[in-house]
């Protein structure tokens, strides 16, 4: 396959996945058809089926693609050792994706709230080991007395809840902001507030 064809394929797949995120978020899995996604992606339905044979295949690709993005956000746990640097970087990355990819976060939340009926054991394989590695890093910080004693999993859950709130409940955030999306300045203040509260809670200054 030539470079030009590879690039066309990459663009089309990206376009389809972003469209699918939005449609799945708005209509749910059961209420979504491949035709809906093709229409949102502005592609013929035949093109959609060329890249993704079934709705289930596309749905799983959306979710695991999003998990891949979140894993990229967490690379700071491997790149840095300073807990302040790691958590500041992680919170900002998570917040930024909550702002730029809110539909994907909603699809993920809906799948998890229903007991991951379509991901099943594949979710364990993708999520469990990765999360335990992050917990181990936090536990080491505690043992080295670099942060206050906290339950590592609970700290991760707090970060996920605080950052993904801005995606999963973006409509509520907008209502409470006089029916306006957060401005860049308001969003920056939100990032700094979440970061400050988390860091101070484990004994660090922002």
From TrEMBL:
Keywords: DNA-binding. It holds the Pfam family TetR_C_3. It comes from the Bacteria. Residues 33-52 bind DNA. Residues 10-70 form the HTH tetR-type domain. PANTHER family: HTH-TYPE TRANSCRIPTIONAL REGULATOR RUTR (PTHR30055:SF196). This is TetR/AcrR family transcriptional regulator. The lineage of its organism: Bacteria, Pseudomonadati, Pseudomonadota, Gammaproteobacteria, Pseudomonadales.
């Amino acid at each position: 396959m030539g470079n030009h064809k590879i690039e066309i394929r990459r663009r089309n797949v990206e376009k389809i996945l972003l469209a699918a995120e939005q449609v799945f978020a708005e209509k749910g899995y059961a209420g979504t058809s491949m035709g809906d996604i093709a229409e949102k992606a502005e592609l013929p339905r035949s093109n959609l089926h060329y890249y993704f044979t079934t709705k289930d295949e596309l749905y799983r690709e959306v979710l695991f693609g999003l998990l891949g993005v979140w894993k990229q956000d967490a690379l700071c746990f491997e790149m840095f050792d300073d807990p302040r640097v790691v958590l500041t970087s992680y919170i900002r990355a998570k917040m930024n994706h909550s702002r730029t990819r809110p539909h994907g976060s909603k699809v993920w939340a809906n799948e998890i709230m229903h007991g991951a009926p379509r991901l099943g054991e594949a979710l364990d394989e993708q999520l469990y080991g990765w999360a335990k590695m992050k917990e181990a890093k936090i536990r080491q910080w505690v043992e080295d007395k670099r942060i206050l004693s906290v339950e590592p999993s609970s700290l991760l859950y707090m970060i996920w809840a605080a950052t993904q709130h801005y995606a999963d409940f973006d409509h509520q955030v907008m209502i409470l902001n006089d029916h306006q999306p957060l401005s860049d300045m308001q969003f920056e203040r939100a990032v700094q507030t979440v970061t400050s509260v988390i860091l101070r809670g484990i004994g660090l200054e922002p």
